[in-house]
Structures are given as structure tokens and as C-alpha cells.
Amino acid sequence: MEINTFLRNFADILDDTDAALITQETVFRDLDEWNSLTALSLIAMADEEYDVKLTGDDIKSSNSLNDIFEIIKNKG
């Protein structure tokens, strides 16, 4: 699993955020677009793209997109 692919997949679930602003260090909760629907979209993306069951606790315990990436990589 590549971080750049993950970042592209994450950017795809956002409607209004420029994909160029999405990096490993992005604090996803700081994005204007971040809300509970986006969190559910992230969980669905992890399931569809990586066959990983991401939980709400996984998201709560994460700060950056790299944190989410590492969780998905370790569960995969």
C-alpha cells in the first residue's frame, strides 16, 4: 500500500478541498469539510479500497492522515 494512493483516495471523498493540500501531515479534523459524513466516507473507503475495518475509535485516536494510513496498513 502506497501513501500517495491513500492520499488520493482520501482527497476523492472530499468535495471542496484542493487535493494538493492533502499530505501525510494533514490534520484531517482541521479541514473545513471534515464532519461525521466525511468520517463515514473514510471508513467506507478503507473497507472498499483496502478491505480494512476502520473504526470510530481508530479515527478518534488519530491526528494526521499518516496516522490513519498506518492503522490501515497495520490492519491490512
Strand count, sense and barrel status of the largest sheet are: none
The N- and C-terminal alpha carbons lie at a distance of 9 Å
- Average of per-residue pLDDT values: 96
Beta content comes to under 5%
The CATH architecture can be named as: Orthogonal Bundle
- The tally of strands reads 0
Total tally of structural domains: 1
Please name the fourth-level CATH homologous superfamily. ACP-like
Assign the CATH topology: Non-ribosomal Peptide Synthetase Peptidyl Carrier Protein, Chain A
The count of helical stretches stands at 4
Shape: globular
What structural class results from the helix and strand content? Answer: mainly alpha
Could you name the ranges where pLDDT drops below 50 across 5 or more consecutive residues? Answer: none
Helix-strand sequence: HHHH
Pfam families: PP-binding
Domain Carrier: 1-76
Organism: Flavobacterium bizetiae
Protein name: Carrier domain-containing protein
Description:
This is Carrier domain-containing protein. Residues 1-76 form the Carrier domain. It comes from Flavobacterium bizetiae. With 76 residues, the chain is mainly alpha-helical. It has a single domain (3-14, 24-75), classed as Orthogonal Bundle (Non-ribosomal Peptide Synthetase Peptidyl Carrier Protein, Chain A). It contains four helices and no strands. The protein is globular. The mean pLDDT is 96.
